[in-house]
Amino acid sequence: MKNNLAYCQEQIEKMLLRSKTKVIFPIISFGLLKKYTENKQEYFSDNEIKIQYENSVRYFKKYLGHSLHIGGKYYDAYPSRNLPKYGVLKVVDNKKYFLTEPFKKSSSHLIAIIPQLIKDYITHKIGAIPNLENLNERLDLAKDKNKFLELLSQQIIINPANFEIFSFAILKTHLEKFACKLYRDTRTSAHDKGVDLSTNFGVVYQIKKLKLLNKTSADNVFNELKTNFSEERIKDGNVVLIIDDISKDVKSFLINMKIQSLSRDEILNLASLLDLEERLKVLRVVFDEFSREYKSDI
């Protein structure tokens, strides 16, 4: 049987693993544990939990040096349903909660390790993105083409959100050279099955961070596209697939089905053709898109 600290750390790590656009439950837990270590408060009202959460978000903004991936909107379901599921709280009355024994016994250790766990998780998830808020940092990267391309190559592969946002920023900047507009109206966490990117010239893009290396996988994707888009749009060649990797045979197969495709390497090749001003714009668009999804609401 796990000891208290091992059990509690495992629960915190589960919370992080299940986080989408914002880290919320580990930050609430940190705030409650910090309050307990300060004055042994173990009973909390919903409003007190909300206050501790907001205080913790402010702490983590300073600790991390940025406000990405923390500070989502607070809901009263968090202490009533979510935190009890992770063993942090017990419901004792209407909007009244009790900090559980394992978390109380491990409180001093947990408040020492939770900040680093959160930092490691966010760094792994969004990489060097927070640094792009700084104009001088963006300018430094844009001036050095090799550093710029190295950053893109490293960041675009981290996860599906990075793949979508970096692809969008590169393609948007490239198309604007031809007076074409590209729009990204969805969120990467929405798991929508339709348009990921739209344009002012009739073409739509769907982004998938996966490899298409055989006809079976190509058939599956094509069938999904037929479900998501009209037959007329597909026949007109107005659906483009942005994909992590694709074999020549599969690319030809999709072309025969009127589906164009762009691989990650082709997207990165477009980035290599951009000038200084355009490289700077890519970095700004990347940060703006990450901020739209991840910036703190608090």
Write a compact overview of the structure shown:
58% of the residues lie in helices and 13% in strands. It is α/β, with parallel strands linked by helices and 298 residues long. It folds into 2 domains: 4-126, Arc Repressor Mutant, subunit A (Orthogonal Bundle); 129-294, Trna Endonuclease, Chain: A, domain 1 (3-Layer(aba) Sandwich).
Explain what you see.
The chain has 298 residues and is of the alpha/beta class. The chain has 2 domains: 4-126, Winged helix-like DNA-binding domain superfamily/Winged helix DNA-binding domain (Arc Repressor Mutant, subunit A), CATH 1.10.10; 129-294, Trna Endonuclease, Chain: A, domain 1 (3-Layer(aba) Sandwich). The chain has 14 helices and 8 strands. It has helices spanning 4-17, 25-39, 46-64, 77-85, 101-105, 107-126, 135-143, 145-155, 160-175, 215-228, 231-235, 248-256, 264-272, 276-294; strands at 43-45, 89-93, 96-99, 182-183, 197-199, 204-212, 239-246, 260-263. The strands form 2 sheets. It has a 5-stranded mixed β-sheet with strand order 4-5-6-7-8, with helices on both faces. Strands 1-3-2 form a 3-stranded antiparallel β-sheet. Helix 1 (4-17) runs parallel beside helix 6, helix 2 runs antiparallel to helix 6 (107-126) and helix 9 (160-175) crosses helix 13. The chain is elongated and about 65 Å long. The mean pLDDT is 93.
